[in-house]
Amino acid sequence: MIETFEYIQTSSTSKFWIIKHHTYEQLKHAQLACDRMDKLRNESFNRIKVPNFEYTKKGNEVHIEMQFIKGRYAHVKEEHIIYQDVVLRDSNWSFTDYKIENFMWDVRTGHTYAVDLQSYYEMPKEQRLTRWHQRRKDGSKGAWEKTMYNQYADPNEHNWPVNPKYDNMREIKK
C-alpha cells in the first residue's frame, strides 16, 4: 500500500488514494508507461510535488495507486511556479499537460502537486512552451482566471491558515 495521509475525525479515521487502471492497445505502450513511472520516481520539480504512487503491470494493463491530494485546483497565484518549475525545467522530461485540474494545491501542506502522472513525457522545453501558451489561448486560461474570483475554493483569499481544519492529519506508511 502506498504512503498516504490519515485524516482523523472525531469518531473515525479516513485514508484517501486514487486508483487508475489503463489498458493499452499494445504491450510496448504499457511498458513505456511503466518506464516513465520508474523515471518519474527519481525526479524533482523544485516547488511542484509528485504524489506518492505505486504501479503494477500485467500484460498491456497498468494499475496505478496514487496518494489523493485533498485541496483545490492550483490557483492563478501558483501558475508562475508551475511555469518555472515544470514548463521551463532544464530537463527534456517534464509534465506536458497544463490543464488546471492537473495541478492541485494541498490544504494540509500548502504545496502544489502535479497529479496527472501520465502526462510525464520527454518533450523539449521549446515544445512545452508552445503547449503552455496554446493552453492559455484555448480556454484553459479562463479556468486559471476563475480561481481569482474564488470560483474554486481558495483559502488564501480569506487569509485562512494552511491547515484550517486539517491540523489533525498525519503521514503514515503501510
Descriptive labels:
174 residues, alpha+beta, 3-stranded antiparallel beta sheet, 4 helices
Descriptive overview:
This protein is α+β, with helices and mostly antiparallel strands and 174 residues long. Helices cover 25% and strands 29% of the residues. The chain has four helices and twelve strands. The strands form four sheets. Strands 4-10-9-7 form a four-stranded mixed β-sheet. β1 and β2 form a beta hairpin. The longest helix is centred in the first third of the chain and has 15 residues. The termini are close together. The C terminus is likely disordered.
What is the fold's blueprint, element by element?
Layout: E1 4-8, E2 13-15, E3 17-23, H1 27-41, E4 48-49, E5 53-58, E6 61-67, E7 71-73, H2 79-87, E8 93-95, E9 103-106, E10 112-114, E11 120-122, H3 125-137, H4 140-146, E12 169-172
Parallel strand pairs: 4-10
Antiparallel strand pairs: 1-2, 1-12, 3-6, 5-6, 7-9, 8-11, 9-10
**Which structural class do the helices and strands define?**
alpha+beta
Taking pLDDT < 50 over at least 5 consecutive residues as the criterion, the unreliable ranges are 146-174
| Number of alpha- plus pi-helical segments | 4
The radius of gyration computed from the alpha-carbon positions, rounded to a whole number of angstroms, is 17 Å
Record the strand order, biggest sheet: 4-10-9-7
Q: Mean pLDDT across all residues, rounded?
A: 80
Q: Which range best describes the helical content: under 10%, 10-25%, 25-40%, 40-55%, 55-70% or over 70%?
A: 25-40%
What coarse outline follows from CA principal-axis ratios? globular
> What kind of sheet is the major sheet?
4 strands, mixed
- Please give the oligomerization state of what you see: single chain
Query: β content, as a range?
Result: 25-35%
Strand and helix order = EEEHEEEEHEEEEHHE
Give the tally of β-strands. 12
Question: N-to-C terminal Cα separation, in Å?
Answer: 6 Å
